[in-house]
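Margin note: ligand = uridine-5'-diphosphate.
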Amino acid sequence: MVVNQNQNTHVLMVSAALQGHLNPLLKFATCLISKGILVTIATTELGRHRMLKHAAVAANPSIKLEFFSDGLDVEFDRESNYDHWLETLRTKGRENFSNLTTELSQHTKFSCLILHQFVPWFIPVAKEHNIPCAVLWIQPCALYSIYYRFFNKLNDFSILQNPNQPLELPGHPLMELQDLPSFILPNIHLCFQKLLSEFFTYLLDVKWVLGTSFEELEEEVLEVMAGDGVRPMITTVGPLVSGFLLGKKEESGVSVDMWKADESCLKWLDGKELGSVVYVSFGSIIVLGQQQVENIAMGLLKSGKAFLWVFKRTAGSAVELPTGFLDAVGERGLVVNWCSQEQVLKHKAVGCFLTHCGWNSTLETVVTGVPVIAFPEWTDQPTNAKLLTDVFKMGVRLRKRDDGIVSSEEVERCIREITEGPAAEAMAKRAAELKEAAKKAVENGGSSHRHLEKFVSDIVG
Ligand code: UDP
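Resulting structure:
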């Protein structure tokens, strides 16, 4: 594809201002820009504050930023009031985004509107403005398969009424209740269930579904979906992570960070032995309770291993590390508020990752070949944990007690399981193989490279 030929092609992207939702779009924007395509990203006013703080985005001349109101004040605590927020985004946000699209379309002809599954209400906006619509599916293809089957009522989900009966879906391992995405469980997260149900009703107006995963990682589920005539079929263009993780020469990565990364941990890692450090992080949203934090702390302490723990101190949370913990671990452990996770996972000293299995973290650990201890909480995380242990075969999962908490003994047991003995070696080998497969997928002629070229030629026309 000749880059210069594409310079009249302009795409519009839209997302709410959540880090985990914006970053995959920004990474995809970087891929499109490398093909000569111009990109405008529209996000909510809250994003103005979050993105403009970050020089990498603000100073990137190839990305034009536009903002619209989701109908709420910037100060409104959206993450504690999902119901209200999603409803205003659905009504006011949709109206404001539509007005913005009208305004922008006066001087720019957009070849495509690209959005992700968590803002389905903007699909009809694309239709109203006669702009072809693409979805960037920012979770594994396995989730597209599960949701597609669930919301289109194609399979038997009686596990939801009878939790002892495992779920059998074509292309998936046998799943228990604890492996299912929490958005399909009855009586919880109903606003997200409604949102996804709307997504699947609008799907007929979507021309392309592009997955941030890669083909070699999810071969079986992709083959079965293709065979079952899933429409639109999902095509993978990932792994969508920063280029430097895939061996590409690249700027430090165009992304938004909610907090400032503590760079001292990279120096600290330099002083540790190869593969000796347990990296611990639960992403940007989850806040653990006091008892759980204490059990993790004691498990890490008793394991005797070195560790780097991202322990976010959020406003309004009184959760603290156990008294005397930091003194007891001394040089063996480091606790930071936030780090450059991709840099940390790439560091040779990191041997395993105790993770909540958010999809971005999952892709990053696959690409860096770091085996995991899975500690999923909600949304796609339980299914991602199942993928990591049973499909990718590069991890173990922490078992919760009946009260929903993981004990310190269990933390210690899993650290041993992932770092010692023949099973640990097999998982490390598998992680190393997937790391190579990820690199190949994005190289010239690789699966994701081909899919990206095809998408670009489709929109360039
Ligand atoms: N992350 C980071 N520093 C940290 C912890 C996380 O940069 O200290 C990044 C991580 O690399 C990933 C994102 O935050 O890209 C978290 O996304 P994920 O989908 O894993 O989880 P979420 O935060 O959406 O629950």
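The mean pLDDT is 93.
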